Amino acid sequence: MAPLAAPELQIPGVEDVIADAARHNGADPTKDHTMVINMGPQHPSTHGVLRLVLEIDGESVVALAPDIGYLHTGIEKTCEAKFYQQVVPLTDRIDYLSPMSNNLCYCLAVEKLLELEIPERAQYLRVLLNELTRIQSHLVWLGTHAMDIGALTVFLYCFREREEILRIFEGVAGQRMMTSYFRIGGVSLEPPTDFYERVRNFLKIMPEKIQQYENLLTGNPIWMGRLKGIGYLSAADAIALGVTGPPLRASGVDWDLRRDMPYSGYDKFQFKVPVSQEGDVWARYVVRMEEMHESVKIAQQALDGMPSGRIVADAPKIILPDREQMKTQMESLIHHFKIVTEGFGVPAGEVLQAIESPRGEMAYYVVSDGTAKPYRVHMRNPSFATLQALETMCKGRLLADVVAVIGSIDIVLGEIDR
Amino acid sequence: MYDPASALRGTEAVFAAHPEVPAVVALKDMAIDAKYDRAELTITVARENLIAAARAVQAAGYNFLEDVTAVDWYPSEPRFQITYHILSHGLKARLRLVVRLDSGDASVDTITTVWPSANFYEREVFDLFGVHFGGHPNLRRIMMPEDWQGHPLRKDYPVEGYR
Q1: Domain covering A75-417 in this structure, CATH number
Q2: For A188-213, how does the pLDDT look when each residue is reduced to its tens digit (9 = 90+)?
Q3: A236 touches chain B (CB under 8 A)
């Protein structure tokens, strides 16, 4: 058998090198210069199962198309087959990094359909837990974003603090991530006795910890070099492409639903809305870090001003009765039986309830036909819209910057695909 | 608790009660139905007027398209209700624009020319409801596989699927 011939080595000639340089200096990319490559769905820096089809010219991105749907589970269809109260656990699974925000948004939407008054104590608990969720979600963002850029240490620090929040969630709801703690009409249980103490301790140490992360990153020349001036998005583009939340505020649009269209009693809290004019990856980093500080302040106010009283609204036909009452009072037992077996009817109509989730504007559109099951539940998720702006942000930039930009828009594929 | 009598129905009642709302002023001639329920304004326009209505409300200050979705009212006709939620950052108000489509001709013009963000939303409605958006730049399935048969969010599609 003849020995295999060695493959001929292709060494680029000097013309190729010059042509390559010319392209990087802005020469027209023609069809034969570009190459189509696939990124994901199994890629560590796409934060889930995002697949990107990239057309590149050398190392610069000419076109980019996201291909989604790998996590599509038909949650909207499933909701139509459940009673109103049975939908709450499904909402956890949409944006799995901020389950409390999803619970809140859905519960507020149904409460709006019912026009139910929520006791102040339940509102404060919801605000407190939502701000902890925001901090927790931003910690995951910061850790993974820094890891994508190459700063591995930050990840471990972020997850150390996140663990503390998850323990608080576990204490309050019995679950670390899929909490399902909120109910239509209030919250499910009175928090455990050590809850307030743990939250207080956590809020005491958290500002110092955020300072620690900033010490590791903010002045770091590599971090600044990878983030500054990358992934620019103008305010007009951000609005045209449906971008919300921290990326919108980083582009200079001063808009936060918590302040501008308050829900769940947010109008009672004092906080600043961080805005940056730069519109790049760095600005998004700065805005989110500031937001964590503000969330700590809101949570502190909620904790200090926690009113006493009921944790659920006074609506026995909608809210499950207390276990004690159920064992002693006939009416409570009947209500319990009716709610569990038949659900409760919701007056016909349609509502849209929007809240400021950690990723931006989350809205639930709930249509009722008067029966005990929602006729239609639709989720407007911030990541889904923000993903459309990815091409605008990455076009003409280097391939390595795509990773930084994906990190900066903080997408969760669970809520994109639903 | 909700009182159904608090809702205003019909263009006349709504426009008389809220004459100064910019969306009402902008859509006065195009609205074929209106509703003011649970502090939310809904205005229905004819399919042919959708683009004109979208441009009119955009000019009236409703600058941000929040969401496009559909509701399937099977078996009644018009079967599909396409719902556009439009937010105004300046007015701090929201508008629900509705277009109703018959099942025989479930198609409507795309509004990507007014708000580019409608691109993904309309693809989602096309994929899950089978409503066609005329003039859309990239009308392909987005959630389901390319070769999928049927449109899962239609009411005549079983929850368990066909397989």
Answers
A1: 1.10.645.10
A2: 888 998 999 999 999 999 999 999 89
A3: no
